[in-house]
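May I ask for a sample protein chain and its fold as C-alpha cells?
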Amino acid sequence: MKCDEIRVLLSALVDNELDAEQKRKVGDHLASCEDCRKEYAKLKRLKEATSEMSYFDLPDKLWAGYWREIYNRIERGIGWFFLSIGAIILLVLGAWELLDKFFLDARISLIPKLGVGAVILGLVILLVSIGRERLFSRRHDRYEEVEL
C-alpha cells in the first residue's frame, strides 16, 4: 500500500476501528516507512492527550447568563427585523411622494431636481457599497490575507 492510502487508515488504527487484514497491512507498511511511523506516533499522542480531557459542569449562574444572552440576541434580531421593515416601507412611501410631488412638478426648475437627484443617487450608491462590504466581510475571514 502507498503512504497516502496508509495515512487515511492511521486514524482508524489509533481508534481501533480496523479489521485484522487492514491492521496487518498498515503494520507491515509502518515497519518499513519512517514518515508514516512518525505520523502514527503523532496521532497516538493526540489520542492520549484528548482522552484525558473531560467536560466540567458550569455553575448555574453562568448558564443563566448564557441563556439571557441568547434571549437578548433573539429579541434584538426581531427588533431589527421590524425596524428594517418599517424603514423600508417609509423609504418607499417617501420616494413615491418625492417622485410625485417634486420630480414630476413642472413648476420646479431642473437645477434643484438635479441636485436632489444627485444627493439621492449618492446615498443609494453609498448604502449599496456599505451593504456589499458588510456581506462580503461576513462571508470571508477578515484575517485571510494576513501573512505571518
Remarks:
- Residues 60-103 form the longest helix (44 residues).
